[in-house]
């Protein structure tokens, strides 16, 4: 008996040991190859080892996938004449940093795979870094580097911007340096994108608000909520763009440092000598400000419509509650009349049965009680429904309104006298 128990115990320990070894082996193999999930028929014990191995495999795959592309950026380069030199070329981040004398954190701000919702305009020694909406560019005195956005679905907008930028850089005799022509194309594309989105949202909200004037529906109210959220998001992005431009306008050092062509030629420039660039940036700042004001007006219209719709719904709800109260008051009056009729309808001797006018008198009495109770309740309900702002002051405030108005010194004399 003891021998059999020892044998069974040794078998169970061996099986557990084999399971532990297999789990360790599978966990170790997950770092070199894809982990294969065991079938359910082989083992039905705890799945902690499987979950850890699966997590390790996913982490390893993510690390391997990022190591190949993390140090690479996809760029489109335009030369000093305005021709496209390279289309979607792969460049190392370290090479770009050393070539253009940038810090690695500067390129991190314009890396398209890193979500960055705040627009930034950074001025460096030989370049201007622009990260605004769909545009991430590096502007120099003789070149423009556009960083392609990974996973972007709006390729038409990018192609239109690239065509306009190429055409603008090829213009001769424009009176503006190369970097200012590039900045002009960038901000024109940004303003055009904001205007197009504003027109789209305005058309959506305009049609929906017109529909809500005729009929208030649950689905329309949900659409209004969705569109208002979209409008709020657009308004925040437009304000951030305006703030980024205004921030550059407030810094005289940055404005003077943005003259890259003069800096390349060795021409010295004072801090206050930046009229051309200031006029250019102020023009786009005013355009973005107009878009922001239009978005704010549309948002105020949406909020007013929401408040009016809520007031209408509250009024309808109050009307239904008042109707319910009126029906309840009428039912109470009829019940009071029925109570009197029930009292005299019991099988008890009241010595009124012999009276010839007893039935008529009881009927009139029951009807009068029912009408009186109903009229009293409805009159009280009508008074409650006519509550105004002056009703909260009470009887004391009502008497105070009939007193003549006196200045503060005369009031003190009157109270003292």
Automatic annotation (TrEMBL):
<keyword id="KW-0812">Transmembrane</keyword>
<keyword id="KW-0406">Ion transport</keyword>
<dbReference type="GO" id="GO:0015095">
    <property type="term" value="F:magnesium ion transmembrane transporter activity"/>
</dbReference>
<keyword id="KW-0175">Coiled coil</keyword>
<dbReference type="GO" id="GO:0045016">
    <property type="term" value="P:mitochondrial magnesium ion transmembrane transport"/>
</dbReference>
<dbReference type="InterPro" id="IPR039204">
    <property type="entry name" value="MRS2-like"/>
</dbReference>
<keyword id="KW-0809">Transit peptide</keyword>
<keyword id="KW-0813">Transport</keyword>
<feature type="transmembrane region" description="Helical">
    <location>
        <begin position="357"/>
        <end position="378"/>
    </location>
</feature>
<keyword id="KW-1133">Transmembrane helix</keyword>
<feature type="region of interest" description="Disordered">
    <location>
        <begin position="391"/>
        <end position="417"/>
    </location>
</feature>
<feature type="compositionally biased region" description="Basic residues">
    <location>
        <begin position="395"/>
        <end position="404"/>
    </location>
</feature>
<feature type="transmembrane region" description="Helical">
    <location>
        <begin position="327"/>
        <end position="345"/>
    </location>
</feature>
<keyword id="KW-0999">Mitochondrion inner membrane</keyword>
<feature type="coiled-coil region">
    <location>
        <begin position="274"/>
        <end position="308"/>
    </location>
</feature>
<keyword id="KW-0460">Magnesium</keyword>
<dbReference type="Pfam" id="PF22099">
    <property type="entry name" value="MRS2-like"/>
</dbReference>
<keyword id="KW-0496">Mitochondrion</keyword>
<keyword id="KW-0472">Membrane</keyword>
<dbReference type="GO" id="GO:0005743">
    <property type="term" value="C:mitochondrial inner membrane"/>
</dbReference>
<protein>
    <recommendedName>
        <fullName>Magnesium transporter</fullName>
    </recommendedName>
</protein>
<comment type="similarity">
    <text>Belongs to the CorA metal ion transporter (MIT) (TC 1.A.35) family.</text>
</comment>
